[in-house]
Write a structure and sequence with these properties.
Helix content is about 20%, strand content about 25%. The chain is built from 6 helices and 10 strands, in the order βαββαββββαβαααββ. The protein has helices spanning about 15-30, 70-75, 175, 195-220, 225, 230-250; strands at about 1-10, 40-50, 55-65, 80-90, 90-100, 105-115, 135-140, 180-190, 300, 315. The protein starts with a strand and ends in a 14-residue tail after the last strand.
Length: about 325
Amino acid sequence: MLMKEYRICMPLTVDEYQIGQLYMISKHSNEQSERGEGVEVVQNEPYEDPEHGAGQFTEKRIYLNNKLPSWARAVVPKIFYVTEKAWNYYPFTVTEYTCSFLPKFSIHIETKYEDNKGSNDNIFGSEPREEEIEMCVLDIAYDEIPERHYKESEDLRHFQSKKTTRGILQEGWIDNHQPIMCSYKLVTVKFEVWGLQTRVEQFVHKVIRDVLLLGHRQAFAWVDEWIDMTMEEVREFERATQEATNLKIGSFPPAINISDTLLPSARSGPSSAPATPLTKEAPEFLSVPKERPRKKSAPETLTLPDPSGRRDSIFKLPNFFSWNSSPQPE
């Protein structure tokens, strides 16, 4: 198990980011999705929790085979997805990721938002933990993101909001910018497989770090698109965008039935959606190869030199394959 706490400051207030977060997640999911890859929304509805009160529950399927490193693609099905379940009781949220193909794999994220510059060292409790927690402070303006995700319009070193006049973010902006808020995220990654645990857990945290940095950058870069929205308007935008994203991905049967394996969960919540039905036909990558005649490893006759000097002498080899004349697949 590898646990890290991420702190990501934003030039926004916590109240503003409640709208911005919903807008960013919907638009970002749509941008990152394409045919057979991306984020499919299965469920998105109000949910009441006895401890945290009214909130929103979402379930998503994240198809990401092509985004895996080559060593991971070699051991997973050609089509598979990770299930995301999130309980949003803003300004507190819980998100869990599981995959039945990897029953020993899970990600658990607790998030809290506060109007400060990341100075609360006890936001997740002051009691000491058995596990060592590494703290990672992310700078949405000056930390590098993967080159494939870079857009000049989202470069916060040069961006200024027309509606709020916030930005350009200069070096050291976290120390003196107003308003300012912080997303605190306690992320636990588990992959309890001997020989692969450290490598996988470190890789997953690298992916999480990149996703968090990109998402928070975009939330501010798109601020002029959402700053005037009401909660009702952003929920309608969320609904319409989710429908468009699901159509963009398309529907297809998974290589394995994700719901066949029930995973233990530390938290109670709504049951997951029904499994995607499988077709009766095997997918193309599992089809049986067509039969072809076996190649013969040697000719049935060989011409050998005649010790007596005669050139027309032929030595007949027995046909060892005459007992089985039916063609065999290679």
